[in-house]
Amino acid sequence: MPERRPYGLWESPITPAALAGGLRLRGPSWDSDGRTLGWFEGRGDRGVVVAAGFGGDGNAIRDISSDHAVRAGVGYGGGDSSLAHGAAWFVGHDSQRIYCQSLDGSPARPITPPVCGL
């Protein structure tokens, strides 16, 4: 027979280490084409933008920003990434610049100038 414990004091198979090391998903959004879904994945100390096409053209789930760690330095409002007009827009963690990268996989290009001191 299971041991009775007060609410919240039972053992759990979910450990703090498992939570800290797990995949975090945030900000799902549709591209303006209505066929591509994108989201932000936190992978340990690194974030990436991921997209999946649903237009029947065989596009698989793919990392869009794999050459950049995605994370904004401001922790309130807005977000780290978005999709629009066939492109992913995101903040590069190291430079804090905004980048635009086509969903076709071409390289990201910076949209904003370098920030002083970064």
User: Distance between the terminal alpha carbons, to the nearest Å?
Assistant: 60 Å
- The helix content, as a percent range, equals under 10%
User: How do the strands of the widest beta sheet line up side by side?
Assistant: 1-2-3-4
Alpha-beta classification: mainly beta
Could you name the ranges where pLDDT drops below 50 across 5 or more consecutive residues?
none
Q: How many domain units?
A: 1
Radius of gyration: 18 Å
Mean pLDDT: 78
How many strands, which pairing sense, and closed or not: the largest β-sheet? 4 strands, antiparallel
* Strand segment count: 8
| SSE order, one letter for each helix or strand | HEEEEEEEE
What shape does the CA trace take? Answer: elongated
Strand content: 35-45%
Number of helices: 1
Q: How is this structure best described in words?
A:
20% of the residues are buried. It is elongated and about 60 Å long. It has 118 residues and is mostly beta strands. The mean pLDDT is 78. It has one helix and eight strands, in the order H-E-E-E-E-E-E-E-E. The chain has one domain. The strands form two sheets. The chain has a four-stranded antiparallel beta sheet with strand order 1-2-3-4, with no helix packed on it. A four-stranded antiparallel beta sheet has the order 5-6-7-8, with no helix packed on it. Strand 6 (87-91) and strand 7 (98-102) form a beta hairpin. It has one helix spanning 16-21; strands at 23-30, 36-43, 46-53, 62-63, 81-84, 87-91, 98-102, 109-110. The longest helix is centred in the first third of the chain and has 6 residues, at 16-21.
